[in-house]
């Protein structure tokens, strides 16, 4: 693994640990507000070209994907540590309970791909994940309560979700 990838991952874990350690004191709102920049209409910037929006109506993966598509967006794809930090902060700001959220990664054979057609070129898996525990865990959720670590889950489970689009 390249040193820059390791450094970025450690930076993210440190930042997220710091943020989650201060949840009860209200620091999360201030720290994430400093990181996430608004795009308008409830959307927040996750990179130089894309903005994302949190949806707090739990849906199965395919239903969440369909809702994103219906508004001209896709379930969010995450390609680097800075985007991951923005996605986790968007979740913290939108949901004080920090429920798991669907991102656009889904198993295709032996690999994961994004619903927007892009490659899964960055990941932040929990230890031992992906494990396809039930043999039906083909979709990826981010767990904000667990520092934003990823887990493969059954696509029929209902989670909140984050859509992203170019803006």
UniProtKB/TrEMBL annotation:
This is C-type lectin domain-containing protein. Residues 1-21 form the signal peptide. Transmembrane segments: none annotated. Keywords: Disulfide bond, Signal. Pfam families: Lectin_C. Gene3D superfamilies: Mannose-Binding Protein A, subunit A. Residues 47-164 form the C-type lectin domain. SMART domains: CLECT. InterPro entries: C-type_lectin-like, C-type_lectin-like/link_sf, C-type_lectin/snaclec_domain, C-type_lectin_CS, CTDL_fold.
